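Annex B. Sample input.
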Amino acid sequence: MSVITNIEDLRAMAQRRVPKMFYEFADSGSWTESTYHANEADFKKILLRQRVGCDLSQRSLKTQMLGIDVAMPLALSPVGLQGMLRADGEILAAKAAAAFGVRYTLSTMSVCSLEDIAEHTRSPFWFQLYVMRDKNFMLSLINRAKEAGCDALVLTLDLQVIGDRHKDARNGLSTPPKMTLKNILNMMSKPAWCMGMLGTSRRNLGNIMGHAKNVDNMKSLSSWIASQFDPSLSWDDVEWIKLHWGGKLIIKGILDAEDARRAQASGVDAIIVSNHGGRQLDGAPSSISALPPIIDAVGANTEVWLDSGIRSGQDVLKALALGAHATMIGRSFLWGLAAQGEQGVTKALDIIYKELDLSMAFCGHTHVGQVGRSTLIESTIPRLF
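Annex B, continued. Sample output.
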């Protein structure tokens, strides 16, 4: 077995072990994928300021997100269809996150349901909600999240319409997936994946199937999904959700300082700077380049987290240095899940933890709370203008 030293090793392993249709669902952006690739490239442009002669004997990455103790300033982002990368994928990822001491966020478009996660994990988790036309179904989801013990709701605002993802179209990824000869042969070339899928009953969207009105088979599920994303979404919906949820609310999908101020004014508890992993507006700025003006806009009164493009502990350190209170990862843990299941998610978290710890030490810090812009070479920070 090859030695796994970084997230890229997990990605390469995942690509070998997962059918192309589902691997490329995770590893894709919209249109030309320029924003997807900029998310990673702009992190690489930022240089760290190495310091020496500092006492580094007592180091800690422990901090809080929304007042919740976490092992490091990081949570797992909501990502749909994890259960198609690995059988029961959402359950496995949630268990790994809980054991590590970080928070897991379940997507509305998950294969495993809210109830599945609550049954298989003892730690609280977060739930991600999309604004849909069927408000009764949304209320039902909110109430189910409460019953499942979720202690924060992540409201994603950047999916009123869906970005044009060319790889999904070429691969026939739909609901249900197109079972072309090419796709069938590719699936058959991944025997471990096939055996895992044969061994589970969870192969649909568990939060929707059997819960949404008249959605009880794959055909009705497909029609329902196609009609549900709401292009009329507005800040009024945020107020409506905030009222019915009644708990901690996080807004995901902010890239603009004006939108960040609007989110702050609505009384949310945290803002996630994110471009949906480059899967929505191609040509939008990278998340890390959009972060500084948003930090300047909202100040210290609202927690700002950074999502999209993080592939290492050094990326986490750079986001913290630019003012992020914490970070979220999507693809980085997905590769671990696809490659090795629960063990792989733990491996991804361990890699990022160790990279963050060592990089922080090389920069002369012993606690993540000490990290600031002086941790970076100022002239290398990407700017929007």
